[in-house]
Backbone:
């Protein structure tokens, strides 16, 4: 249903900004290198890769995806480029346990994080 809506909109209005499209299926997982991936199935497929930074925060944090309060150990710092510009990095705190985070994080919130990374 959503897939077809997206297709139809893009057919009628090619170049529509992704933030105006109906939300597609969101995947949120760690890849084999430990990076966090947020992917919205297309068309067009939208993908943001977040690089983990070493260490964990010294104080309790709130995860930006699921908004749960975390001990420093359960949280991690991650970063991603904004609009593909390597000089423009955004840092955020997320659960280290991405699978558990995914079961609490609203898809709309994950999409916000994704779009802030790919739209400049
Ligand atoms: Zn989380």
Residues:
């Amino acid at each position: 249903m959503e897939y077809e809506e997206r297709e139809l909109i893009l057919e009628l209005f090619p170049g529509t900004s992704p933030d105006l499209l109906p939300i597609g299926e969101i995947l949120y997982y760690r890849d084999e290198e430990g990076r966090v991936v947020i992917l919205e199935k297309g068309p067009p497929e939208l993908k943001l890769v977040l690089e983990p930074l070493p260490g964990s925060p010294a104080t309790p944090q709130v995860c930006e995806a699921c908004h749960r309060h975390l001990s420093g150990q359960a949280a991690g710092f991650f970063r991603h480029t904004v609009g593909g510009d390597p000089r423009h990095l955004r840092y955020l705190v997320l659960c280290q346990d991405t699978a558990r985070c995914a079961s609490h994080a609203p898809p709309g919130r994950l999409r916000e994080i994704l779009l802030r990374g790919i739209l400049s």
